[in-house]
Amino acid sequence: MRAIGKGSLASILAMGLHVTRIILSISLIGIVLMLLIIPFIPSLAVVLSSFGELEVANDGDERLVELGVYLSVAHAFATTAVMLFVVNRLLEILKTLRLGSPFVKENADRFRAVGYALLIGEGAKFAFGFLSLVFRVDIEVNSSFISWLAVIAVFVLAEVFHEGARMKEEQDLTV
């Protein structure tokens, strides 16, 4: 299978990433709407209960449940935002591959940005894990050695692309 051109691996990957970007964008919009609506749910419940449509139980832990839901949705926001950022950078990298010149300085910068985004995403897992302990809410936060290895691998790729771009530039000047 060819690396560039119509029907190539790069084209197939780009198509999959475009679909992923659409799904992530829609998800992010929904998550943002949830983040905006969640703080108003207790007030809406009180208003609806005054019309007799809804009965509100007051057990004293409403704020804790609300905070747990809010932290879970905020965690989903951070994760989805990082994924969308990474997908956009990968699409930009694939574009240069399809054009036939992947070893450009911009791709090294894009890989570095992906590395920082993944690093921020992994750091956010620890932050949300800490918040879940402090506020005693149940948020599933899992970080693994392979995730940290992937972050390191992306930074190594950034350096490889940086060096490749430097070598290509040097070669273009010697011709």
TrEMBL record:
UniProt keyword annotations, A-Z: Membrane, Transmembrane, Transmembrane helix
Annotated InterPro entries: DUF2975
Transmembrane spans: 21-47, 67-91, 111-135, 141-161
Domain of life: Bacteria
The UniProt record lists the keyword Transmembrane: yes
Protein name: DUF2975 domain-containing protein
Organism: Hyphococcus lacteus
